Amino acid sequence: xxxxxxxxxxxxxxxxxxxxxxxxxxxxxxxxxxxxxxxxxxxxxxxxxxxxxxxxxxxxxxxxxxxxxxxxxxxxxxxxxxxxxxxxxxxxxxxxxxxxxxxxxxxxxxxxxxxxxxxxxxxxxxxxxxxxxxxxxxxxxxxxxxxxxxxxxxxxxxxxxxxxxxxxxxxxxxxxxxxxxxxxxxxxxxxxxxxxxxxxxxxxxxxxxxxxxxxxxxxxxxxxxxxxxxxxxxxxxxxxxxxxxxxxxxxxxxxxxxxxxxxxxxxxxxxxxxxxxxxxxxxxxxxxx
Length: 289
Ligand SMILES: [Zn+2]
Fold this sequence. Notes:
Layout: E1 4-9, E2 16-29, E3 32-40, E4 49-56, E5 59-64, H1 70-84, E6 87-88, E7 96-98, H2 107-121, E8 123-128, E9 134-139, E10 145-149, H3 163-174, H4 180-199, H5 206-216, H6 221-233, H7 240-244, H8 256-288
Parallel strand pairs: 5-6, 7-8
Antiparallel strand pairs: 1-2, 2-3, 3-4, 4-10, 5-9, 8-9
């Protein structure tokens, strides 16, 4: 089994961690080679498995260098197809490995290296330097990794949050990786809902409503900074649809959808969790004094 270390944000606990990645080969079909990527969150309080289903349609480009005879090229392509389930096609060049094209010695080692490179980098370049005639490059198609466990980046929704707001938030989390535009639309609706519900600001335009929240000075600076940043990243002022029809699906900036969820989480604490905790404290002390 090939292993390497990877840093990532845990989809369970949302903490950053580094850990060993291991792979389990599944089967191949006409869509490519399938394998399961496994990691375990190294945060002791989390310690959960993260499973990513991967599919790769490996492709090779034989960069013909002048005098390569077609026969030899065909032989290598054929050979690599058998070995790595690759289709002659496409490219990039990054890492180079040499091996003896004639005898094909050391190939197992190369295959191992190649597999690792593909898994880590997505792209590999093999050079058949013995003859100095031929260059082959392996690449893989993008967007073929699906988080299967947990099903989505899970975020904890405190029980104090009103049910309909919590539901929108959970849905936004669930579709984040598959459809960030949909997630952001759901988040904007959720955000607007909080502003209507908690701040009692309601004139139907999210951009202006956020402005009112900021001007109202009710929220702590760390939250107003986040809200302000969200308005900028999402460019709400230039997107009337985002402001006026908050649930509408429109293209989003990179990371906008995820950032929107972060902002809402901050608001959950401030608007629902803390007031409830304080109310409970007051009630408890009220009995004593
Ligand atoms: Zn974790």
